[in-house]
Amino acid sequence: MLFNIFTFNFFVIDLVKVPQILNIVFARSGAGVSVFSQLLELLCYTAAVAYSINKNYHFSAWGESLFLSLQTFIIIFLVLYYYKRFIALTVVSSFYGFCCYHVYNGSVWENVLDSVQMMTIVIMFIARATQAVDNYIHKSTGQLSAVTYILLFLGSLARIFTSVKETGDNMIIAQYMMSTLMNLFICLQIQLYWGNKRSLKTE
Description:
This protein has helices at 2-15, 18-27, 35-54, 59-82, 86-104, 110-138, 146-166, 170-192. By secondary structure, it is an all-alpha fold. The protein folds into two domains: 1-108, Up-down Bundle (Monooxygenase); 109-194, Monooxygenase (Up-down Bundle), CATH 1.20.1280.290. Helix 1 (2-15) packs antiparallel against helix 7 (146-166). The longest helix is centred in the middle third of the chain and has 29 residues, at 110-138. The chain is globular, with a radius of gyration of 17 Å. The mean pLDDT is 83.
């Protein structure tokens, strides 16, 4: 049973943000996608990978965070590119590359990683809440992908069970529980505001 959940979850996570990426590319716009929210998500996913590697957890415990961090970075890149914010794009790309180099080669102290991991629950909540508030203000979800958020909801729900089995780490389990609830909320917003148009121009 747990193996089936893991297999399903790993497949879902592999592709989870691809629909969002395609939405942005086909529309040639990131309208409705909060860059601030995506940056916070990127921080959480990157911290989760570094934390898990430091704890010597199996790849199955943090692999999805690695895939999500890569896909989230692509989303940020595309949104800034279509908004023609090239300076911001250069700064974000350079800074993230610098951070990854130091985080993944063991330059960051273990207590720092532990502290950041503890904060990811709050950071991820703020990230999702920022997107939810933006949706509410504009009464539209713009280019947000319904498929992506449904998969995020299902994936985080499945990860609660696999995290209990594979790590038993309460911080990681709590993070996935919070993500499940917030992803569900945004799914409901997408349903509520379905069909509402949003400006494709930079806001």
